[in-house]
Amino acid sequence: MANKFQQLLTDISEQYLGERYQWLRLLLHDHVPIECLDKSTTGLELFNELSDSDYISTNDVALLWDVAEVTSQKAVKLRISEYKTSVQCSDTDGTRLTAYRKALFKALRNVGAKDLTQVIGYYNIRALGLNKWDTVFYLEKAGRLDNSKEKCTTFANLINQMAKNMLLASLSADDDPTTPLNQGKRCVPVNSSNEVSTPMPQQPPVAATSTGVAAHSTQGTSEAPKWSENDFQLLKTIVSIYYDSHGCLVMLKVLFADHVRNKAKLGTITSTMDLLNELVASGDVSHDDITMLYNTIKLTGHFGLQNDIRKQFKTFPNVRQIQITEFTKYRQKLMQFGMGMGEEERKTINGYYNRPVKDYTNDNWNMIYDFECRKIIKERKIQEFIDILKKLNLTCAAELE
Fold it and tell me: What confidence category does residue 190 fall into, taking pLDDT thresholds of 50, 70 and 90?
């Protein structure tokens, strides 16, 4: 069993490389001593430290499951499930990650370059080249950020509203939000009801949908409904048919650009279903969490799709009421820009940047997608693009500010 357990840790660590390793360092901050966090460079080192400290063991992998759940790593969850089956590992109630820790992770994923500049400036951080994960690690290590109300609120006020709301929601969820967690001591499992989730409007219970499958109601729980394999596939099919019939593929490529890491593959995708399958493969959409689909319908403004889905799933929520949590402010503004740009404005922009002008088939999204691929539009230099639009007297510039 010990060999299987060590192989499990090795396999999982290989899924957390690069930025994903920094995710682990943030999520395990309450479980791994700060000196180990400071010196380690791999997920395996962190997992071995958890094992040595009895946070995980051959018969207790609940903490690993929590990490996989929060980071939406489907492959990791599958590997843990295989391990639990092979060794008959018992399930553990509750969760080993606090509401604050999970909320901090979710908020940080939505923090942009502008937010990071404000944070670094406010805390007078002089180290160069820190990304947002390094910055928060530095602040927590220095004791300037923790789950106490004062420090958490101070940090939250420096970041965008969406990320701020995510973080501050944890203050009412943790049992004692005024006291920082004790570094190096084992955390008491927190009830799973403390998990931060996207608010879902309550729907009346329905026994079954028109197709005879179980209804997906959120009444009486803050958790997102879970979908069976058949229901989930049907949902993806409805979404794919709708967006393809409305010629929205390139718009969706622009929307999901931050979530499909393989940009070369993104360019070869020819259907919405293939695009959705990429999101499933990356863990951004799953049977357990379709929040991104809710966000997508709201951001694209295609509420007719909601009506199509409700024909099969009567308790599908009113997405007009949901909060956008899965897309950065920059990405949201880029969508507004694409929707607000007029035909003459597109022609003017096309003529300015392209000699000779390109044929964008009378579509704003083809131009935006092309400009992102060519780095004409990029988050870190978006102000330069806005300034040019203003010099051209184009009112669509306001959508990006």
Answer: very low
Nearest Cα neighbor of 191 from 171, 169, 178, 173 is: 173
How far is residue 293 from each of residues 126, 162, 296, 308, 325, measured CA to CA in Å?
Answer: 40, 17, 5, 14, 11
Domain total in the chain: 4
Buried b (16+ CB within 10 A) or exposed e, 348-364: bbbeebbeeeeebeeeb
CATH number of the domain at 50, please: 1.10.533.10
> Measured at the alpha carbon of residue 241, what is the angle toward residues 239 and 243, in degrees to the nearest 5?
65
Sequence letter at residue 169: A
pLDDT per position as a tens digit, 84-97: 888 887 665 557 89
Does a structural domain hold residue 223? no
* Cβ–Cβ < 8 Å for 237, 245: no
The domain of 248 spans 229-321
pLDDT in tens, 210-247: 333 334 433 333 345 578 888 999 999 999 999 999 99
